[in-house]
Every structure is written in C-alpha cells, then in structure tokens.
Specification:
Strand content: under 5%
Distance between the termini: 20 Å
Number of helices: 3
Number of strands: 0
Largest sheet: none
Radius of gyration: 21 Å
Shape: elongated
Helix content: over 70%
Length: about 100
C-alpha cells in the first residue's frame, strides 16, 4: 500500500510541476501577445496613417490566428499532449521494471 501512495505522490508532484510550468508559460505568452499586438498595431497605424486602420488590421490578424488555432487544435495541441502522456507513462513503467 505504501508503494501505491508513493507512486501517486510522485505522479501528483510531477503533474503539479507541469501545471505550474504551463501557467507561467501561458502568462508569458499572453504578455507577448498583448505587447506584440500593441507594437504591431502602432506600426500598422503609422504605415496606414490611421489608428483605426492599423489596429483594425491587427485585430483581423489576431482573429484569423485564433480561428486557425481553433480549427487545428486537435493536431496542434490535443494529439501531442496525449502522445506525451502515453510516452511518459511508458517511461515510468520501464523504470519500475528495472
């Protein structure tokens, strides 16, 4: 029974570490998206001579990006995560056998 408790504790601690890493990465990606969007919005505005046109173009680009991410979410996010989980579980099983 102690072995199962230790194994579950190890899995939980690894999962918590990955979760914390994902939260920090998402926060940094959000900041990059916000400041990059502002920078590109001002750049497009200076090129087009209008804040409305520049930020409108930037909004259009972000909407297209989000639509593409939504359309390809399975092949970009779901399948790689599932494969990663399967690979890690196989690695843990191999380590337990050794």
């Amino acid at each position: 029974m102690e072995i199962y408790r230790l194994q579950s504790l190890r899995i939980f601690s690894k999962s918590a570490g990955y979760f914390a890493w994902i939260i920090v990465s998402l926060f940094l990606a959000f900041l990059i998206l916000i400041f990059g969007g502002l920078m590109l919005g001002y750049w497009f505005s200076s090129m087009l001579g209008s804040y409305v046109k520049g930020f409108g173009l930037m909004t259009l680009l972000l909407v297209v990006l989000f639509v593409l991410l939504a359309l390809f979410r399975k092949s970009l996010f779901v399948d790689p995560v599932v494969q990663s989980i399967i690979q890690r579980s196989r690695e843990e099983e191999m380590q337990e056998e050794d």
